[in-house]
Amino acid sequence: MTSLADITPPIALGALDGRYRKAVAPLVDHLSEAALNRARVHVEIEWLIHLTDRQVVPGVRQLTEAEIARLRAIVADFGADDIAELAEIERETVHDVKAVEYYLKRRMSTILGEDSAQLSELVHFCCTSEDINNLCYALMVKGAVETVWLPKAEDLLEQLTGMAQELADVPLLSRTHGQAATPSTMGKEIAVLAHRLRRQVRRISTTDYLGKINGATGTYGAHVAAVPGADWPAISNSFVTDRLGLVWNPLTTQIESHDWQAELYSDVARFNRILHNLCTDMWTYISLGYFAQVRGQGTVGSSTMPHKVNPIRFENAEANLEVGNALFDVLAGTLVQSRMQRDLTDSSMQRNIGTAFGHSLLALDNVQRGLAGLDAAPEAMAADLDANWEVLGEPIQSAMRALGAQGVPGMENPYERLKELTRGRRITGDDLREFVRGLGLPEEVEQRLLDLTPQTYVGLAPELVRRHL
Predict the structure, then answer these.
(1) Percentage of the chain with pLDDT > 70?
(2) 6 is a domain residue
(3) How distant, in Å, are the alpha carbons of 4, 56, 328 from that of 235?
(4) What domain range includes position 440?
(5) How many beta carbons lie within 10 A of that of residue 335, not counting itself?
(6) Residue 363 predicted with pLDDT over 80
(7) Do 53 and 379 touch, CB atoms closer than 8 A?
(8) Which residues are catalytic?
(9) Distances from the Cα of 369 to the Cαs of 23, 166, 240, 319, 365, in angstroms?
(10) Rounded to two decimals, what is the model's pTM?
């Protein structure tokens, strides 16, 4: 039997790099192993530029603008050949960050000329690997969130907002505990989910991405030994903040503490859980006939039942949200812990960040496609409302309570009287109107309740949508 592992080009082991590659491909620029190596090259080059710009090491000249441009071009032009070269060097070093250092030093002679030997000593100067890696991950995750994940989430919010506004006035029989309950509108129920998701997006969009560059145990020990006269915390701060655009963490062990990552992943996981709630609600509304799934899209609903159009986009999204959240939860729980000044658990753990975001992004894509394939069916919602006149027991007994509080006679025990009429059985509009006429209500109140129907008993639902979305 042919070994699939030997086929060229290599076959993807996971679904994200196989079946779903197109949906998650934008994350490759930010959270892949190649993106990590490109980020390492970027950080190492910027550290070299920073040290020379500030003339931190006495006797070392500043780089020219042309030299800086050529160094930065290494990052801009980083591609397949560079990936292969780094892999070759790493086979010798058996150390990924050291491989980047050697890779850069190979290029110094052509860029820096006769000074290359001297200046190349400032590549990875006073750095432990984590000085580079923590900054890389902060830049990579920041890029993935701000340029890929957040725009996709914002697109979904815009889509949900449009649906909520369009359906703001469409009455819906609510179901609390799965039972018929006070009506709402479909738009208002979608608006609730959109509002919840938007709060999480706001939190995620204000994330602080922390970084540090302070040596093997966070003490600047090597820095002070090498150049005792320099203000190393200030140099570190300006590098992380001004040059890389991150938030400086002044106190760490060998590793940046990763608390910001745990906070971010918890927020994304919470967004995902709300999105999962949306998926299960939409699935249920489809099963109730409140939405029809648009046909004619070239899809097969069922392999054996030609009448079916399955809600697969929402089901697929549910599964991917669950997988993504399993990863986000373990990332958030594990990354904040490290034995003493350093252990290596975070190194392996962080290599799963891209997979976690990949499943979340895939879920977002599926939800958007699922929502785009829906047509509301107001007639089905109206039929459910018309079959549940008992939900008007609430406004009638509430009106009786208000009248009783005002001293109107004959309004005693409103809840119990409505319970006797409605609990455990279906009633018609005629039944309810007959009951209302026998209550002895003031004429204005009686007419208001006689005019009420399950379809019109939606309170301020339409107004809430327009006011808050």
Answers:
(1) 97
(2) no
(3) 52, 8, 33
(4) 389-453
(5) 23
(6) yes
(7) no
(8) 177, 302
(9) 12, 18, 40, 15, 6
(10) 0.92
